[in-house]
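Proteins fold reproducibly. Take a tokenised chain:

. . .
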Amino acid sequence: RRTVPAGPQPQPKTAGAEAQAQAEAGAEAQGPSGWRRHLDPAAAGRRRRRLSLQRSSTMALTLLNCTLQASSGIADCVYGNFSAPKAQEFLAAKGSRLELLRPDEDSGNLELVASLETFSIIRAVRAFRLVGAPMDQIVVANDSGKITILEFDGNKKLFTQLHCEPYGKTGCRRIVPGQYLAVDPKGRAIMVAAVEKQKLVYVTNRDAASNLTISSPLEGHKAATLTYATCALDVGFDNPVFAAIEIGYDEADHDPTGEALADTEKYLTYYELDLGLNHVTRRWAEPIAQTANMLLSVPGGEDGPSGVLVVAENWVAYKHEGHAEVRTPIPRRQGLAPNRGTLIVAATMHKQKDLFFYLLQSEYGDVYKVSLELDEGKENVANVVCAYFDSLPVAVSLCITKLGLLFLAAETGNHALLQFKGIGDDADVAASAVQDESLGDDAEAAAEVAPTFAPRAKLQNLLPLDDVESLAPLNDFLAADLINSGSTQLFTLCGTGNRASMRVLKHGLSVSEMAVSKLPGQPQNVWTVKNDAEAEYDAYIVVSFSNATLVLSIGETVEEVTDSGFNTDYATLATQMLADGGLVQVHAGGIRHISADNRVTEWKPPGKQPIEKAASNARQVCVALAGGDLVYFELDEAGGLTEGVTKSLGADVCCLDLMPVPENRVKAPFLAVGCYDNSVRLLSLADKDAMLTPCGVKSMTHRPHSLALSMLNANAIASSADGFDDDDDDDE
């Protein structure tokens, strides 16, 4: 219905969002040549709600990315006891994901205990433990600008957040802390450092309820300073001390000639946290090698002299306040050019009673064992011994457990778990400290005094136990269906050098092989059944051959059993656990019912007719005899299988199926039968007086091979494509 307006239509003058929505609705309703249609109030209200929703949804749009397959490359890894006091576990940081791995005591394989998606870029992770605590806790630094402390609940297998304290902007910035983490060995303080300038120290303690507390950050900044590495010194219960490799660029930044850069030195700096005054001071600094890139803490107190190992290219040196430097060259590979250096990329320490040593790995994959020789008083270091240990794939991180396992987080290719066969006490190639101060820090100077070795092709001190699959780095991939399987595969090029590989990724779930058992012949069918109605897992694997049956028990091992109650002289046609906890086995010679108390009852077919097909569920069994006869059984209240009805179909049966018993019912209402006359018949089981009566017949173009009956949801849900339909505002 249209009317000619008397004049220009006035715009609404009400205030707020409602006036704007009405104005927009009026503009849409305005027709050509001044024509206007009348809008009923309900339609106008729906239009206003739609416009308001469009504006609010546009402003509130956020996107969340969840990967289908987690990253397999490890950025950092630590060892600790996270789920139990004596648990030997590794915590791996994979991109934005934390994974807790535990070696199996029997098989030696690494098992995934739990994982946590942090939705951030994890930059560093460390384990720490307060004095007297039974388990380790986790401190994580990422690109969120916060320091996070986590605890793992071994019972629930979940990570629990204890603290999440902000300290800077988000993102991986050179001036925002988070690149380096150092934890006091007694768990009293945590240092979070940035690449440039900023260092923050947090004091950790317990409250009256023994809950972990964390203080406000204490600043230890130094302007115009770059940081290369940090670590915490073992000073017992004295004030916590942190060490850092630093270089100042203030003079070089203001020198346009570049001469000041050549004279700039790296420093080993000690930062002390005064627990009484609650502030951080720069305690001590001393020049070190220009190529220094790593710090390793030396045990202190009764276990050692304290201090740090400064790892540089070609050299490893012991340094400490008030102690002379003890420097040792790193053994070199045979055939390595004199001007080619040896750079250490990963290191770890193993500590026991009256014993500690370090494993260092070079960029070539060679592993060195570094040990300290102390004087008689065990207060000063007399010698640093660096010996060739073994050669392994280049690692990002190394971790040693107290049980003698080494986890290698590889830079490229699969990660590895290895076991110690020896600790390299009888090393053939070892270097000792050099007292010649005229030797420089470059490769030529180290080549003059460093012993050489030929890397071993086979491991001598380590034994491989397990591999953890890793696609890192993924160099290229192709998405295509090259094997004509109907689904796309990903053909990937992974790794580098002699660890390069091409791998094919397919959609689906991975399968872990738990046990392998050789079979005496070619099986024709296999089932898994429980032996207890309340059991969580299946107890038997029933394997059917052409003329026999094999029953295997499932436990720590898979082995054949002879006391299961099954008849192993026939091929099994069907097996099922019944509702009373008993088992039923259908074979060509009859039906064998094994009750829950191990009593065995057998039913033999009449006239020696063999059973050809069978179907069962928790309360019903149906068998097809030769010639097309069907025999139906039900589980009675006494726990026995009662023969119900026998019906001749007039055609041999090639397949049949009983659907599972529906919820809140005592039996399935239908039986489906496929016959050799190319027909599929649906028979009723609901009425006792009309048992096995036909409900329908379907003629097929070919002989049916298998059938499956399933209960579908009878509730249909209809939804409108447009929730703001102008014609009807009611839900359908």
Residues 1-39, 714-732 have pLDDT under 50 and may be disordered. The two ends are 29 Å apart (CA to CA).
